[in-house]
Design brief:
This protein is mainly beta. The protein contains two helices and nine strands, in the order H-E-E-E-E-H-E-E-E-E-E. Strands 1, 2, 3, 4, 5, 6, 7, 8 and 9 form a nine-stranded antiparallel beta sheet that branches.
């Protein structure tokens, strides 16, 4: 019986190597971006932010996550200089708050060792000097050396302390839609607290 049990445990360990170690995901800035959409009754204003840094870690045995994604708030642009100046000065106050950060702390759902996984990633979203707990829907595609991920979510920027840039004849919503796309390399390493 002992030999059978030992053989079963050995076979299980061999069959599930991906679940025995922590996963490290590094972003490639050339393949990672955050697009944003802000709607008014007549049209949608679109823009983007550039990635500053990104490294994520995940422990499959516990569901714990770590690391951070940082976007440079000062790079936010929509293609209209006057509108972007107003956004930076009066809404984001990006000179005072230059970073937009997400610190994941746990993952809900099963991360498949390869292929697509649909996940809920919980963490802290930091913008405009405030920290906000948020859960993001994430689609992850994991390969042996490369990964990619996407997430679409809404940021209630007015509720989070920023000004609505509406003027007399132009009214925009109190929420901005974010489309996050990232890709990079896969490694393994210790799961620690980056903060």
């Amino acid at each position: 019986m002992r030999i059978w049990a030992a053989s079963f445990l050995l076979a299980l360990a061999i069959a599930c190597p991906a679940h025995a170690q922590q996963i490290s995901l590094r972003c490639d800035p050339a393949q990672s971006k955050a697009n944003w959409n802000l709607s008014d009754p007549l049209h949608t204003v679109k823009g983007e932010f550039k990635l500053k840094q990104c490294e994520l870690r995940y422990d499959p045995s516990s569901g714990k996550a770590g690391g951070e994604i940082v976007f440079d708030a000062t790079t936010g642009q929509s293609g209209n200089h006057a509108r972007d100046h107003k956004m930076h000065k009066f809404v984001l106050e990006s000179e005072k708050y230059p970073d937009i950060r997400f610190h994941p702390d746990r993952v809900e759902g099963t991360v498949n060792p390869s292929g697509e996984s649909k996940l809920q990633v919980h963490g802290m979203f930091s913008i405009h000097g405030g920290d906000h707990a948020i859960t993001l829907p994430v689609t992850l595609n994991l390969g042996p050396a490369q990964w990619s991920a996407s997430s679409q979510f809404s940021v209630p920027y007015v509720e989070w302390g920023m000004k609505n840039p509406s003027v007399l004849f132009l009214h925009v919503g109190d929420n901005v839609a974010i489309d996050f796309q990232a890709a990079g390399s896969v490694g393994s390493g210790a799961l620690g607290n980056s903060r």
